[in-house]
């Protein structure tokens, strides 16, 4: 299926950039599993669900871009316009949770590509998976930069009453023009802050992620982003530093030179200052936070304002309420 990226849903009508008149192909993904396992020591979750491969948000810095090369496609336009859809996502999640060996612990929705990207308006796979999680009282954590998450506020509110859900919203800038250039098919900064506010008012614990922090481009906004996040009702705030693994680097550098021509060399130089002269460092413990004096300045700045505005850790999710789902035929399991 193809469509022009000009349609918007009720909750994410305000996109950051102009609609891109480029056909987006939605391709079938016949994966036989939906829950991925992660053992990276610097990623704070073990299990994740990603209903889509590729992402039409088109953020030039997205660390997941090179994963499209596993499919024989490129990390540039293919990643943004050839979106693979796991239509059986909810069925596969139900099957996973039915396994007798599953010892319940939180599962993160997203982690690679955004589960509320534009495809979700049409396919509603995240919604379907959310309904399975609620039925089973399976705790989940959602990561997104799209206000479309508010579409599912009814279910999220219910899950929050039983400590079954957190939502992390990424806010990289408060400047509409920069957001429009950097994250063209996401919700505007104002729409994301409104999502934080509405989620918080509904009792859903919210974290704001300043992710990524790009030295020389948006690091100076950290204090104001944290102030706005706190005023909107966020409980927690965290950051990650820009990562440019493998073929993500040329995509980002092309974007930087095209959209920030007067400042591109300065920004690239400052990014290198956070990575010991390189544009990327894949070492555990440093790839998210960087190294060197400038990286330390960013960590210090973030820490000062995180404390100043009174952010705290999110409350723990409750895995003790889990109920294994019924079999597809409706029969209860004997074992």
Give a concise summary.
The chain is α/β, with parallel strands linked by helices.
Please tell me about this protein's structure:
This protein has helices at about 75-80, 90-100, 120-125, 125-135, 155-160, 175-180, 190-200, 220-230, 250-260, 265-275, 295-310; strands spanning about 1-5, 25-30, 35, 45-50, 50-55, 80-85, 105-110, 140-145, 165-170, 205-215, 235-240. With about 325 residues, the chain is α/β, with parallel strands linked by helices. Helix 5 (about 155-160) links the parallel strand 8 (about 140-145) and strand 9. The chain is globular and about 60 Å long.
Helix and strand layout, with pairings?
Blueprint: E1 2-3, E2 24-28, E3 35-37, E4 47-49, E5 52-53, H1 77-81, E6 82-85, H2 89-98, E7 107-109, H3 119-123, H4 125-136, E8 140-144, H5 153-160, E9 165-170, H6 176-182, H7 189-201, E10 206-213, H8 222-232, E11 236-241, H9 248-259, H10 264-273, H11 293-308
Parallel strand pairs: 2-6, 4-7, 7-8, 8-9, 9-10, 10-11
Antiparallel strand pairs: 1-2, 3-4, 5-6
Q: Got a strand count?
A: 11
> Main β-sheet: number of strands, strand sense, barrel status?
7 strands, mixed
Q: From N to C, what is the helix and strand string?
A: EEEEEHEHEHHEHEHHEHEHHH
Average pLDDT, rounded to a whole number, is 91
Give the C-alpha Rg: 20 Å
Q: What is the CA–CA distance across the termini?
A: 42 Å
- Quaternary organisation of the protein chains: single chain
Structural class: alpha/beta
Q: Tell me the strand percentage band.
A: 5-15%
Strand order of the largest sheet: 3-4-7-8-9-10-11
Fraction of residues in helix: 25-40%
> Which blocks of ≥5 consecutive residues have pLDDT under 50?
1-9
